[in-house]
Amino acid sequence: MNTRASLYQARYGSAEVTVPSAGSHLIDQLLAHRSVRAYLPDPVSDDTLAAIIAAAQSASSSSNLQAWSVVAVRDPARKARLAALAGDQEHIRQAPLFLVWLADLARLERVAGQVGEACAGLDYLEMFEVGVIDAALAAQNAVAAAESLGLGTVYIGAMRNQPEAVAAELALPPRVTAVFGLCVGTPDPAAPASIKPRPPQSVVLHHETYSLPAQDNGLAAYDEAMRTFYASQGMKVRGTWSNHSAKRIRDAAALTGRDRLAEALQALGFPLK
What we know:
- By secondary structure, the protein is α+β, with helices and mostly antiparallel strands.
- The protein has helices at residues 4-12, 25-31, 46-57, 76-85, 90-94, 106-114, 125-148, 163-169, 201-204, 216-232, 241-248, 261-267; strands at 68-73, 97-104, 152-156, 176-185.
- Strands 1-2-4-3 form a four-stranded antiparallel sheet.
């Protein structure tokens, strides 16, 4: 069993990390999070799904607008089509349950109509952001819940590569769009996943005011931690985390199809003023 110290060491990719005296079983579980891309065929029951969604619904929601929904996909043919739309990611096909998390403004539009109110506010970027944030908060609760039940997960951002095709596959109405997917299932012990290091807290934690130069030493340490991680996993990643990240934002083509997201959102009923 992982000790708390070993969890911190794995999370930060360093044996020199300071382990806080504050701790809990929940924090230990969160520290042990890893992306799982290999699953056993064991199904995720409706009972388990209900518990996971209840946890998701327990997340905070901006103004209690509940501007999110989720589609549970188990049908192998539909998972295969969604996998193809996401760049042929095999773990989408393999996972017994695939959850597609949605920014959902259609429900609010419908509610406004039913009570005789206008809904022009839905046309603004602010409301789209509310839907995305609500979906992300709910999904992260779902991940924590799934992991507490012994399941594994991995997020699929490539649901945004072809948003119109995903919307057609899931019969999404206007003002609803897929934000990301989530594979859920029992991890395959024959292909264990490892904890991926995160940057030192000096990179992300700022006291009173923000400092960009103060992050440099931490980022250099993170580059080295990730170089070690890539090698240990047999991942053929050229250069450092900094190199990899810089290439990912180099130009619109590097966004892997998401460069035309604004155009797609317009087509899906999000004017986004």
